[in-house]
Amino acid sequence: MTQKQTLTVRDNRTGDEYELDITDGTIRASDVGKIGKSDEEPGLAVYDPGFTNTASTRSAVTYIDGDRGILEYRGYPIEQLAESSTFLEVAYLLIHGELPTREQHDQWVHDITFHTFVHEDIKTVMRGFRYDAHPMGMLLSSVGALSTFYPEARNIKDPQIRHEQIVRLIAKMPTLGAWSFRHAQGKPYVYPDNDLTYTENFLSMLFKMSEQKYEPDPRLSKALEVLFILHADHEQNCSTNAVRSVGSSQVDPYSALSAGIAALYGPLHGGANEAVLRMLKRIKTKDNVPAFIEGVKNGDERLMGFGHRVYKNYDPRAKIIKKATEDVFEVTGVNPLLEVAQELEKIALEDEYFVSRKLYPNVDFYSGLIYEALQFPPEMFTVLFAIPRTAGWLAQWLELVDDPEQKIARPKQIYTGERQLDFVPAAQRWS
Ligand code: CMC
């Protein structure tokens, strides 16, 4: 039997000692709250802006070891999934916790495929946006609007109803994402083609014009499949935390996911690959790389696409994406900025500044190059992230809904404002 682990804390204000249980390397905030608690005083609390050292949940979905550069979905290494699985199989794995049997897989793919269409009124909602609306703004609004089309979705305790919304969301995200792209181009929206695979259908809805049937190059749909697998989940990041936080109010999953999309919209989260592309364009040629690196070392700016809050090693997703760039460029021709990116990586990986700070390429370093080669404008990059992340958000949302330990998210604050001022009515203050 393993020995119970505890932490002894002495409150130097009173001399009282407390023994706190340590479970899975954590202490309970509620146990900390017993320290110094009396009828007059609240107990001690923990101050942690940005939750940098606070576990908000127990989760069996995604494992990350940032020091070793390990990422696993439900225990399966990301490298193996990217190499040999499909996005829909990975989505099943994330949602259900295990790989599907053949029958389960076929049923799952069938269900997702036959829910790709959206109500025509959603099209009207999307048409109402300005001609140059940002596709992420359109996506988050239209996903939120879906809750009004499926009011039964609010019955989040009913497993069958939950399952139906999960299928709908995974199925409809490519349709909504593609339509938000077509909208900005003034092109007609393309309906789903259910003969195609998930990524093929997405490419068809993005790029089909007058041809009878759109047939994407299999190397492109495969590359997109790999990118979708890599972006499917990443444990308790900002958008997942938003989904869980909003979902903890027991709202329907469409509303909870639109909060996740809103969080992803922000430049600190989903927008870094766009910044990488802008940086590469500015550097322009391989010869300008040494001077740029010097500027980074002098603190003038950051090398975008390098460094990560969690990974202090090569981001495992970056390695896989680097390989996918080769497959895409075989079809589209090499993006001349690849040479600049490779030179940056080569120099940075040898330079003491980056080595000592454990700064390695992250997932965004190469993905922007692929997206640009596929002719996506930068505003679409985050939409390409949101579509696959839907599977992860839903897996995390399901876990939340079934977790008896979870409560409505409601952090504490340290109040820094005034107290007990006397209100003077406007007529007196302004006279
Ligand atoms: N270029 C140059 N220096 C850097 C960089 C960089 N990209 N990232 C960190 N540093 C330096 C930083 O200046 C600091 O140096 P010092 O100790 O001398 O002050 C040290 O490294 C530690 O940096 P930090 O800001 O404390 O690290 P963090 O964990 O808070 O930041 C980060 C993580 C991702 C915000 C940061 O590395 C960064 O800004 N990178 C560039 C933006 C980027 O590529 N973001 C995409 C992240 S991956 C997307 C995802 O998974 O969702």
Automatic annotation (TrEMBL):
<dbReference type="InterPro" id="IPR024176">
    <property type="entry name" value="Citrate_synthase_bac-typ"/>
</dbReference>
<keyword id="KW-0808">Transferase</keyword>
<dbReference type="InterPro" id="IPR016142">
    <property type="entry name" value="Citrate_synth-like_lrg_a-sub"/>
</dbReference>
<dbReference type="InterPro" id="IPR016143">
    <property type="entry name" value="Citrate_synth-like_sm_a-sub"/>
</dbReference>
<dbReference type="Pfam" id="PF00285">
    <property type="entry name" value="Citrate_synt"/>
</dbReference>
<feature type="active site">
    <location>
        <position position="308"/>
    </location>
</feature>
<protein>
    <recommendedName>
        <fullName>Citrate synthase</fullName>
    </recommendedName>
</protein>
<dbReference type="InterPro" id="IPR019810">
    <property type="entry name" value="Citrate_synthase_AS"/>
</dbReference>
<dbReference type="GO" id="GO:0036440">
    <property type="term" value="F:citrate synthase activity"/>
</dbReference>
<comment type="pathway">
    <text>Carbohydrate metabolism; tricarboxylic acid cycle; isocitrate from oxaloacetate: step 1/2.</text>
</comment>
<dbReference type="GO" id="GO:0005737">
    <property type="term" value="C:cytoplasm"/>
</dbReference>
<keyword id="KW-0816">Tricarboxylic acid cycle</keyword>
<feature type="active site">
    <location>
        <position position="364"/>
    </location>
</feature>
<dbReference type="InterPro" id="IPR036969">
    <property type="entry name" value="Citrate_synthase_sf"/>
</dbReference>
<dbReference type="GO" id="GO:0006099">
    <property type="term" value="P:tricarboxylic acid cycle"/>
</dbReference>
<dbReference type="InterPro" id="IPR010953">
    <property type="entry name" value="Citrate_synthase_typ-I"/>
</dbReference>
<dbReference type="GO" id="GO:0032787">
    <property type="term" value="P:monocarboxylic acid metabolic process"/>
</dbReference>
<comment type="similarity">
    <text>Belongs to the citrate synthase family.</text>
</comment>
<keyword id="KW-0012">Acyltransferase</keyword>
<dbReference type="InterPro" id="IPR002020">
    <property type="entry name" value="Citrate_synthase"/>
</dbReference>
